[in-house]
Known about the structure:
By secondary structure, this protein is α/β, with parallel strands linked by helices. The chain is 38% helix and 14% strand. Helix 1 crosses helix 12 and helix 4 crosses helix 10 (220-229). The relative contact order is 0.19.
Amino acid sequence: MEGELHSKVLILHHGAFGSSENMAPIFREAASRGLCAIGITRPGYASSTRREGRRAVNYFLETQAALNHFNITEFVSLGWSSGSPAAISDTQDARCKGAVTISGDAPRDSADWDSYIEKYPPQNPATEEPAFPSFDEIRTTGPEGLVKLFNHLLSQKDVEICQSKLGEDLSHASQHGMSSGDFGALDDLESDGAPWGIDLSQVMQPVAVFQGDEDRMCVPAHGYFLAENLGNAELILAPGEGHISLMYNRAAQIVDTAIELLNR
């Protein structure tokens, strides 16, 4: 948690293979505005206890525990990458004023998912088939090795972030999140590929869907699917941004959007 605690906060959900620490740019922007942000590290990551069989539909349970502990009355939920299902899950809590997804996963079990993949590819598709690194490689790689590690999965702007000082955020979060083993990542992958159990059309809180058009990990199809299937969503397409660069380069805009939702 960062910032002075108030009854209205931002809730942050991290991406896969990390912990709430890989939401560092959002924490920083929230703190600069005097707004409290609370990070939720999913079960199985870092020192958190595994909750085997967790699914998107019940991810909000961890959020509720934090809300009740800190006496939060209103919040906006933000999720990056595999944190997107958790942000959407949080809309089941009546205290949720809205959600923001950042390079977010969409449910892939829909009958028309393949049509989205065909219609909305990244603007800079990789020239070679990307190979995903092993969990051990993710757990042990420092900032100097990030570009080699993720290779063709990175856009040019992702590479720039990884090669900058900001790469320390990403490698530290992965080392922290994966330090206790593989269960957090394995449970994320299993849950991401399973039905969410959430009727997106019934989500009536406003949802801002931030999507980079050069994202090679959660390709643009994810953003378009969420925007078109959620009950009250707006797609905010960021030209030239990739999976990682979107959160870093647009952090101020993302937090301003979340604040706008919180104050509606």
